[in-house]
Amino acid sequence: MRGYFAVGAEGLSKRMNLGNLMRSAHAFGANFFFTVDADKALGRSPKSDTSKSPGHLPLFSWNSVDEMDLPKGCQLVGVELTDDAIDLPSFGHPLQAAYILGPERGSLSPQMLARCDHVIKIPTKFCINVATAGAIVMYDRHRVHGKHHERPLTAGAPTILREPHKHGGPISRTGRIVPGT
């Protein structure tokens, strides 16, 4: 996949949720994981992170929204049930994105929402577990950016398969094709 993505959570307090979210981020190929204003007891990887993700992707822990230091060009995407949030199935995922989820018994802070470039929601009747919500968002990103075959309109496997990518010849800096290739 092209681009990169990160997953983070603001105000987490439960070790099990942190570990499950970190494990899912690792499984879906996140490039880094982060927390903002997390409970101090969450300083190390919980036992529920059975993939031991901090050994495979960087973990950043920021004390506040103001301390967050995302890479240049990275768009912050809040995951929150608000009236004006974009439904996840209709959302165009940015190529460079950091997804931020709220705490277990609350919402993203007003400061975090103000910092977000986009706010999306999973179309559910009520809030779901933070680790489950994160996995759903990562699955949707993977489905959109993963170069998979188009889904059929009826049940079953795809009937029209995507052609494999064909690499062209080298292109010079002037934009012309290099002769002899």
Automatic annotation (TrEMBL):
Presence of keyword Methyltransferase: yes
InterPro entries (UniProt xref): Alpha/beta_knot_MTases, rRNA_Methyltransferase, SpoU_MeTrfase, tRNA_m1G_MTases_N
Stretches for region Disordered: 160-181
Domain tRNA/rRNA methyltransferase SpoU type per the UniProt entry, residue ranges: 7-139
Organism superkingdom: Bacteria
Keywords from the UniProt entry: Methyltransferase, Transferase
CDD domains found in the cross-reference section: SpoU-like (cd18098)
GO biological process: methylation
Single GO MF descriptor: methyltransferase activity
Signal peptide: none
SUPFAM superfamilies in the cross-refs: alpha/beta knot
Protein name: RNA methyltransferase
Protein source organism: Roseibium aestuarii
